[in-house]
Protein: Het domain protein
Organism: Colletotrichum fructicola
Amino acid sequence: MARFTKNSDRDYDVVLLGATGFTGRFAAMHLAEIDRDLKWAIAGRSGAKLTKLAEELRLKTSQNPDVIPVEFTTQSLDALAMQTRCLVATVGPFPQHGVLVFKSCAENGTHYVDINGETPSVLELIKAYEDTAKSTGAMMIPSCGVGSLPADLLTCLMVEKVKETFDCPTSAGLISVHDSRVQASGGTLNGLVTSVSSYGLRNILKAGKPWALSPIRPARPQADESRNVSKDIIERLKLAAALHQWSTSMMKLIDVRTLKIEEVFDEEIPNYVILSHTWDEEEVSFQDFQDIDVAQNMKGFEKIEEICRLARARGVDYAWVDTCCIDKTSSADLSESINSMFRYYHDAQACYAYLADMPRTRSLEKHLRNCRWFTRGWTLQELLAPAEVRFYDQDWNLLGTKESLVEIISDITGILCDVLLGKTPLWDIPVATRMAWAAARSTKRKEDVAYSLLGIFDINMPMLYGEGPKAFRRLQEEICKKDDDTSLLAWDSRRPLHSRTSVAFASSPADFAGHEKTQAITRFRNYDVGMELTSRGPRFMGRNLCMVVIPSDKDIQRPCPHGILGLAIVPKPILLPEEDNGGIIRYVLRLDIGTSTHRCGIFLEKVQPDLFRRDCNLPMALMSYKLDHLTEYQPSFIIVEDQLSYRRPDSTLWGRHKSVHVPIDKRIKISRILPRTSWDICSRLLFAPRFSTQVQALKLVVNLQPTQLELWMLCDRRHIQSSGRPRILLLDASASRSDTTDIGIQAFLRHINREEEEDHWHAVISEGFKPDSFDDSITAGLGTQRYRISALVDVRTVKLKGYDVKEFSVRFNIRPI
């Protein structure tokens, strides 16, 4: 990128950043061996790890590099860059950490080398800092590592060989691996998936073209022979982006005879047994296990010895124990292991469950119920995943197997026997039921509430310790992306009265408590109803929204005696017109879960034409199969997340601002609304549309004893800015008769009868309708009796949740003339 310049006044010739990582350690060893006169240092985030590495290098090579702890901030990295002539970066992931390092070197005239193999990020760096590096004299050399160099060298050698052998140019080349001894690490796979999601396939392919990273361009366009290769690359990238837990590359296993840990890969993984237990004091970590003399003096070593003894007795050579087979100091190893945990237990030849607080007793069932093992979050998947689970008491006496104790375990956990024995697959069980299994379980860290459930829902996601309860929300979002089972929302949403926020997702598995005890739960597979995740909350498609009436306290039915459903309300079907109902009107979203007599649902309030919020002051709804409920027309809607989709706490009230309220008038019924989604039957509001040019209309039936009149009320919001209120137009709906001579009304009626969901004034006017020919009153009637009907608009301010909301209210004046 730039000419090589000397910056000899620096403290070091080379600083290796990221020296304690996998690749960094090899680079440090290489630097220690190549030149005794080299002034160099190792840098990274952990001073303790750097000091330990420096000591290792001193013992092996007599080299003693300086140690420079550094934070990944602009100020700290600038200071580091100014200390060295050349900085070698082995940090990762590069899109996250490498950009700041690259920037500091380019701006401070420090030569730079990295092993970044993600060409889209390299292309962005070149575009951003090419001119800067030229001005400071910094030579920037990205992609100088094992991840990218061999492919380039092999391509170069192949092209030269073709030219030498066949005397012809090469238009395209394809490299494939036919026999690989190892597979990509979890970090590599995570980087690949991150690249696909961050840059998109189009930009990845663009950055991968031969001349993408070069300022020199070919004299003529490249041939199209590589088109098929690009298609193959796309399919491979799609496959990589879809990788999940069953594609994990490596696991650590204990050799039960030598008590040494070995790393094995997918195709080489031997038979092994696995330990399930609750953690106690002095557990043996991965680092502790490296020194067997130290490990043997720790309390937790007995469990390792016992699992190895049981494995040897079974004729199995390997065992897996979570305390020492996961390097918890490595975020990559920890993340890979947690995402693979369900598979580890599923693939084990047998799982040995050690119940440390289970005494040797004849009262098996009584004491088994009180075991801490049944209250911990992580042991849920350890119970469900293995085909064979063998339970041992505190003295390592066999209590029985999952199969022999299945009825007791089912009673303790609420999990059906067929599920425990693997006869019913987990994906046949509703999401809410699986959540309920974990309702009474706990974990030491809040994040592990979610991470311990990943395998039960076949979900993969990165570990972010420090995010707290947000991890459980992320889990639900991933479930929403993967599964359209709406029972995900079948949780107890009750919040303190007058709460200003509403959420779509539960705060913990405890919100689902009660679903595990309902034996007759049925999964409703509505293939015509979909659910997807948006930035504002889950979106629903399909006709699964209905209108109901919440009965008065004395009429409330509670058909289920226990748990979350024991508090549920059985709503009544709505009666039309609305004023004939004797309770509160609400919307109910019917969910994919229910009992033998009722289907579960959640109560919703409408806040905008396509947005609903959950009524957190109401329990769940139980919809009787015997009752027919009126379905609301709402082809697509979102259950809004107040806390996440907007920054202001009053955001869900925006739909109420400048809405039009039509109060109940026993003389007037509403028979039609355009557009239908803008009307809220619960609050009798016509929500403000996205554009003031949109036509909103209500068809009214006016009761004039002994006759009835039909009118159209049009709401013209184009006048709000000038007059402070919308203009109301009244039209005689009887003008649709063939003998009418009012061309304007005919034009309007022709337009709205096309059932357009959204119409705008310019489109109606273009067909001959003249708004100025009408006003807010009309004279109509049958025979000799005539009436003057007027619509009056009042402006009012409504106090909602502590905020002032401006609304318009329309009232009608009917008098005979």
Observations:
- The chain has five domains: 12-141, 149-176+189-217+225-243, 253-424, 517-645, 657-816.
